[in-house]
Design a protein that fits this description.
disordered N terminus, alpha+beta, seven-stranded antiparallel beta sheet
Length: 235
C-alpha cells in the first residue's frame, strides 16, 4: 500500500476546528519596529488536526502549505494531506528528495511544497536558498519587496531545523530582523485572531534565533487564484 492510500484510510475531510482568517490582525508589531510588512490578502490558518486528520508530530509542512494554498485560492479548499502525498508519489522522478519508505510518514519541506503548488495551481513561485540564518540580512530587501508586492505567506523549511514554519510578516527592530511566525504545530480550538495570539500560535521572532548550523529554503508564491485542478469548496 502506498503512502497516499495508507493515509487516506484515516482521513475525514470535514473541518474539525474553525479555520481562523487573517490571524495577523490579532497582533501588534514590537516596540520601536520599522519597515513593518505582512501578508496582503486573505488566508486561513491550518494546523495540526484542523480537519480530523492525525498529523501530530510530522504534518507541519503540509499545514504550512495548506495555509499558502488558502491564500492562493481563497474560494476553494486546499488539497488534503492524502492528496498532496499522492501528487508527490506521482512525480518521484522529479523530486530527488522524495525517496520515502512507505512504512514511514512522508515529511515535506519547501521544495516538495513547490512541486505541489506547481502541480495544483497555475501560479509562479520562487525558491530562496539560505545557507545560514546570517544570510537573511542579504535578502532583507527581497523579502520586504515580496510582502509589499506579492503579499503571500512564506513556507520556511530547513534541514537540521526540520520544523516547518509559516512566515506572514517581518520588520526591523534596531539592528535585529524579526519575522512573524504562524505555528502549524498548534493542536486545539481557536475563536479569533486574538485568541491565536494568546495561545502562542503567532509571535514575532528574531531571525537570529534560527539554528545557525542549518540551511533554510523559503517558498514564495507570487500570485493568486490560478487553479489547474478542480477541488471541493470549503465547508
Amino acid at each position: 500500500m502506498n503512502d497516499s492510500a495508507r493515509i487516506s484510510r484515516t482521513m475525514n475531510c470535514s473541518p474539525k476546528y474553525l479555520l481562523i482568517k487573517n490571524v495577523h490582525d490579532g497582533i501588534v508589531a514590537p516596540t520601536e519596529a520599522t519597515d513593518i510588512v505582512h501578508v496582503r490578502g486573505d488566508y486561513r490558518y491550518h494546523h495540526y488536526l484542523c480537519d480530523h486528520f492525525q498529523d501530530v508530530g510530522w504534518g507541519c509542512g503540509y499545514r504550512v502549505l495548506q495555509t499558502l494554498c488558502s491564500w492562493i485560492d481563497s474560494e476553494s479548499a486546499p488539497p488534503s494531506i492524502p492528496e498532496m502525498v499522492g501528487i508527490l508519489n506521482g512525480m518521484e522522478s522529479e523530486a530527488e528528495t522524495w525517496n520515502r519508505d512507505n512504512s514511514r510518514t512522508p515529511w515535506i519541506g519547501s521544495y516538495e511544497g513547490f512541486l505541489i503548488l506547481d502541480h495544483v495551481y497555475d501560479v509562479s513561485c520562487r525558491l530562496l536558498h539560505i545557507r545560514t540564518p546570517a544570510e537573511l540580512k542579504e535578502h532583507y530587501a527581497t523579502l520586504q519587496e515580496h510582502f509589499t508586492n506579492s503579499g503571500s505567506p512564506i513556507f520556511l523549511g530547513g534541514d537540521k531545523d526540520c520544523f516547518g514554519k509559516c512566515v506572514i510578516g517581518m520588520c526591523k527592530v534596531e539592528a535585529s530582523l524579526q519575522w512573524l511566525i504562524l505555528d502549524p504545530h498548534y493542536n486545539g480550538t481557536l475563536e479569533s485572531p486574538e485568541d491565536a495570539v494568546r495561545k502562542g500560535c503567532l509571535k514575532w521572532t528574531r531571525t537570529d534565533e534560527l539554528l545557525e548550523d542549518s540551511f533554510y529554503n523559503l517558498l514564495l508564491p507570487l500570485g493568486q487564484k490560478r487553479r489547474k485542478l478542480k477541488t471541493s469548496s470549503p465547508a
